[in-house]
Amino acid sequence: MKPEIVKPEEIEKRSFEIIASELMEAGIRLDERYASVIKRCIHTSADFEYAATLTFSEDAVEEMRQLIRSGADIVTDTAMAMAGINKKKLASYGGRVHCFMADEDVAKEAGQRGVTRAAVSMERAAKLEKDIVFAIGNAPTALIRLHEMMEEDIFTPRFVIGVPVGFVNVVYAKELFIGSEIPHIINRGRKGGSNIAAAICNAVLYSM
After folding, report:
1. Which candidate in 43, 98, 147, 184 is catalytic?
2. E-assigned strands of 30-172?
3. Domain boundaries 53-206, corresponding CATH code
4. Quick check: is 43 catalytic?
């Protein structure tokens, strides 16, 4: 086996060519409305299972585009996801990325109430006076708190990306939004992560 000679500026393009080829070989045809998101998640993780497990509400990608065009912010549950999202592209439409997880007052309140910082962070995000795309890649309690706030008629999210990774309450938290009226992109099962949350955001941003 010899290494494939690819110019640095062409590596990403070549990666997506390989992804497209392997999907074709496997007989997998993607819905064109969602193909760019699925392929970028595969590119980020080298995991083709995302072609089967990523779940989209009707016209989810276009709805997220419309929110971003109108200046929506993105709120995520990890600094890693915040770092990975293309903030310059988002800012060109008037949006910003927020993560409240490291805020001292969030940690203090979470400790006092005996809840997770992610849950408190969602409450802080709900007070932003803007439309928000939630990009959750780590904490299922963030999704659970968002759903609780909906049931309590406190807050209704405009869009939810739910791809937390792990074992405790992860599948349960994701299923809360699958089939709901909230526009969403959810990955079924245990897989996901901050990198996947950022990849989904970037896939939509790059398609605009």
Report:
1. 43
2. 54-56, 73-76, 97-98, 132-136, 159-162
3. 3.40.50.10230
4. yes
